[in-house]
From TrEMBL:
Superkingdom of origin organism: Bacteria
Alphabetical list of SMART domains matching this protein: AraC_E_bind (SM00871), HTH_MERR (SM00422)
Domain HTH merR-type: 1-71
Molecular function via GO: DNA binding
Record's protein name: DNA-binding transcriptional MerR regulator
InterPro entries: AraC_E-bd, DNA-bd_dom_put_sf, GyrI-like, MerR-type_HTH_dom, MerR_fam, Reg_factor_effector_dom_sf
Keywords assigned: DNA-binding
Species this protein is from: Bacillus capparidis
Amino acid sequence: MFKISEFSKLGQVSVKTLRYYDKLELLKPAYIDSDTGYRYYTADQLFLLNRILAFKELGFTLNQIRLLLEEEIPVEQIRGMFRLKQAEIHTLLENELGRLKRIEERLYQIEKEGSIEAEHEVVIKKLEAQHFASLRKPAAIQEIPQLFAQLDRDLGKNFSSSYPQTVLWHCCEECEGEVDLEVCYPLQQISMKSEVQVQQLPEAPMAATLLHRCHPASPCTASAELGIWIEQNGYQIKENEPRREVFLHPEHDFYIAEVQIPIEKVPSNVR
């Protein structure tokens, strides 16, 4: 048997913790010397200590742990509880990492307020009409990758789609905390057998465009830079036309993308 100080080293907990577990009748010493009051533990009690610590990691209170120990839960059930906790933590980490990226991008936007980056050149061009398959729904911008994944599943083998991926940002006055998004693929061949929405995106005779590097599910400065350029050069955004963003090709965790905003000259009588 081991003295409490020795057992604490083996179990990697403090002596104070072991005394507290004794008081709560979670883990009582195997033997207490009646003359000295010294507590002694056996090696197999380390397994019980490990189970207590495992339940603590899962977020149970000590009172709840005492009840769980009385039920003698099988090891496989404990493994299942840990797998659920593991999945929960992975999801939390992914959400927080995404949030961190958005915070970094917002900070970058604040630092670049009022300026257009030198390497970003606004180009005016005509956007040709094109057929595309799409999926449209109100969603947060973080959900763009999931929307494309859903569109991929819906398309199946009925379509021959060509990259790049395109996102249309529609106006939605009723949306709260979401955006009216439409994810789509330009089509080389059209099959009317599929239930996926196939339509024609009309041409835009004049659009202000800007190439930039971004993450598809994060906000970026390109739209703000385009807005500044449009305002400073005597243009206005054409009504009832969605903002377009074309993801051209991947670059590690980012994409080279082109923002396209249909525009028209501001009438001379309103300048």
